[in-house]
Amino acid sequence: MQIKSLKNFALPFFAILSLFPFVSSGMALFAGLMVAVVFGNSYSAQTKKLTHTFLSLAVMGLGAGMNLSVVARVGANGIVYTVLGIASAFILGSLMGSFLKAERNTSLLITVGTAICGGSAIAAVAPVIRAKSEEVSVALGVVFMLNALALFIFPFLGHHFNLSETQFGLWSALAIHDTSSVVGATLQYGGHALEVGTTVKLARALWIIPVAMMISLIRSKQQEATETNQKMKKPWFILGFIVVAALVTLFPSLRPFGHQVEWLAKRLMVLTLFLIGSNLTLETIKTVGIKPFIQGIFLWIIMGTGTLFFIVSNIIK
Questions:
Q1: Nearest to 41 by CA among 268, 275, 284
Q2: What band does 285 get if pLDDT is binned at 50, 70 and 90?
Q3: What is the number of other CB atoms lying within 10 angstroms of the CB of residue 243?
Q4: CA 66 to each of CA 71, 118, 157, 274, 308: distance values in angstroms, whole numbers, following the listed order
Q5: What is the SS3 string spanning 206-242?
Q6: How many angstroms separate the first and last alpha carbons of the chain?
Q7: What pLDDT is attached to residue 227?
Q8: CB-neighbour burial class of residue 293 (10 A; exposed 0-12, middle 13-18, buried 19+)
Q9: What is the pLDDT of residue 286?
Q10: DSSP state, residue 317
Q11: In this predicted structure, what is the pLDDT of residue 114?
């Protein structure tokens, strides 16, 4: 009886704990996995339903931290290499996924995360393609693992290649998945590197919007072609993201409130990652295998080294 009570208590307890500021995204995902493995998920029906709702709300809330005028200006300066970089990542990711015969949705989520901004991009695209919890969990697990490695590897390589702070900030923004890890890596390198890296990364994050909508359109066309009865989920939360970001940009007096909304959205995202992890089972992990990790690692290495070459060669500056 006590064991059953402990199983029922574990998930709500750790879910509440994940809302606290000291719990990172990676910690929450790992905690969810551990709860699922050790105690099992007695609330799987509820957590799967809440996952999609919380993901959408969190993405919308993140828009409150965006100053579209600043981000758009930075994005306009580097629009050519941004488009080329995202397109290259999608082409390589598609080819690698096909070669490895990786699961379609997981492969796409890993590619999106590498191309744009890691966990945020995965969270935005997952509801659009109706990705399963285990597919999202695996993609996020790959991204978070590489984010952790980047915090140690990037500063070392930056000093090895004698990159300036501007170059290092730019490289970090283009080659590291998540904004939080960009901040962590550039903070070790210098104040200017932090400023450049954060701004460029935020500008790149705006590409979540057109990419998610494009994926939604393509998937809808494919479903029509195969005469599937299941309806594709429309990415209305992307419109919400734009509206929230536009309001904060147009009305500067709303920015303090916007930062509070952004903070809440980030905590909601962490809670969502915990729920995603809690939906994963050992059987699913065994079924998925090592293919997503191979794709994620090699795609990251290729994009990172390619970007570094272009920056060192002053092609990207």
A1: 275
A2: low
A3: 12
A4: 8, 17, 30, 25, 27
A5: CCHHHHHHHHHHHHHHHHHHCCCCCCCCCCHHHHHHH
A6: 64
A7: 46
A8: middle
A9: 66
A10: -
A11: 92
